[in-house]
Design brief:
With 208 residues, this protein is of the alpha/beta class. It has a single domain, classed as Phosphoglycerate mutase-like (Rossmann fold, 3-Layer(aba) Sandwich). It is 37% helix and 20% strand. The chain has eight helices and six strands. It has a six-stranded mixed sheet, with helices on both faces. Helix 2 packs across helix 3. The mean pLDDT is 93.
């Protein structure tokens, strides 16, 4: 049996857009003071975990969260576009309520279909579907799991990415909300994935 890599996959801290209920997508938004505090609290929780490496989305909110979590560990944060949030096209920076109102039929259809069919649907050509989102995330995870076999790695990303992956895994918490600074602990040999622990997932209806 191959030695497993352990990955802590974390959502970034709160941003102004989160607080206002706006869709962020791949646009840049900075952390609020609350978001920085959330990252600081997670740093305390992870204090005794030895991370061999730290990766984050190249968007400011994720990178800053990773920097705060690993500040005392003195680790460089490596960024990757593969960890970015879903591309929401023209809806980025717009209210989540607007997206739901203008795509009511699409969302109804998405809910009615089995996930394997629904994940391929697109609300619009410039919006990533779950299939595209999960494909790039899993590509990243597999490469890291092989490179860091037997080691522990921190990955800071976004709610949409995490939720799509949990749906792909058919995990119990896949339909739940993901709190800012929520995370799951994942084991992988570079092929298979096993979710061992979740925190701040499926507990409270906070906006993405």
């Amino acid at each position: 049996m191959k030695t497993m890599c352990i990955l802590y996959v974390v959502r970034h801290g709160e941003t102004d857009a989160n607080a206002k209920g706006l869709i962020q997508g791949q646009s840049d938004f900075s952390l609020t003071s609350i978001g920085e505090s959330q990252a600081t609290n997670l740093a305390k929780k992870f204090k005794h975990i030895h991370f061999a490496a730290v990766f984050s989305s190249d968007l400011i909110r994720a990178r800053r969260t990773a920097e705060i979590i690993t500040l005392e560990k003195k680790l460089a944060v490596n960024t990757s576009h593969l960890l970015r949030e879903r591309n929401f096209g023209k809806y980025e920076g717009k209210p989540q309520t607007l997206f739901r109102e203008e795509n009511e039929e699409f969302l109804r259809q998405l809910t009615a279909l089995p996930y394997e069919e629904g994940k391929k649907l697109k609300a619009a050509e410039d919006i990533e579907n779950d299939d595209e989102l999960t494909a790039r995330f899993i590509t990243f995870l597999r490469e890291i799991a092989v490179t860091y076999q037997g080691k522990t790695v921190l990955v800071v990303t976004h709610a949409g990415v995490m939720r799509a992956f949990l749906r792909h895994m058919n995990h119990d918490s896949s339909s739940g909300f993901i709190e800012n600074a929520g995370y799951f602990r994942l084991r992988s040999d570079g092929i298979n994935f096993f979710v061992d622990e979740t925190s701040g997932i499926g507990e409270s209806p906070r906006s993405r």
